[in-house]
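FW: tagging you since you asked about this chain on Friday. Here's the raw sequence from the shared folder, copied in full. Didn't touch anything.
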Amino acid sequence: MSADQSRRQSGFAPLLASHWDLSAVAGSDPARAAALERASTAEALVAELCRLLAQAVRTNTLRLGWEESRRNPTECRAVIQWWIGAEAFDWFMNGRAGYRAMFRKGFLRELCLGLDFNQHIVIALRAMLADALPESVSAIRLNCTFDPIGPITLPKADLLASLVPHLSKVWAAGRFVGDAADAPPRCSFNSGVQLIVDGDRWSAPWADDANATLDLKGAFIGGPEPYQPKDPEQRALTLATTGTA
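HL: got it, structure written out here
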């Protein structure tokens, strides 16, 4: 194991129960809390997200969008959505070694751990897509309000170019690529149960199994430099202090 791998595994270790308390979840749904207690390491979560993304490519269930920027419609970014199921979604959102937990842990240690973890995920997902996708892919062009414009054929190289690790981000898919603006949301969240995070109460969102889907959004490209409208460091601070993005 390299020194970098060792530091990463140490940094990405799960939060202690004293910082990330599942007792309210256990009181409401003991089976769910037990599954979260069994959830494995952050590295295992990354491997599972990659496995499920590869499965989506194989089964042709991957949703690909090419989203126009508000600044300039010729500047676009990749939007990649794939199903992960309710249990992996809960692990991602609410596990002690999950996505939000790593942002919280980084805040406690005054490190950019959440940004490092997000970048680690993006690099792994990008590498998988580079190997698995054909040289051109079918996608849906989206306007700047995420409404579908129509189908396009997109070079894989453009898709990968948008996935700049430090500017891309992973989160739950609130609206699916291709859905009309007036379509009812398909990824429904329930946040009635709460986590206790260093004494504060955070929602513990979950999604129904059929629609539990993640969203990987790249940087806008086509201009002088790739960019992300929402500052990654500000997003990291919001995630670390409120659990929302």
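FW: The longest strand covers residues 76-83.
HL: agreed, and The radius of gyration is 18 Å.
FW: great, closing this out.
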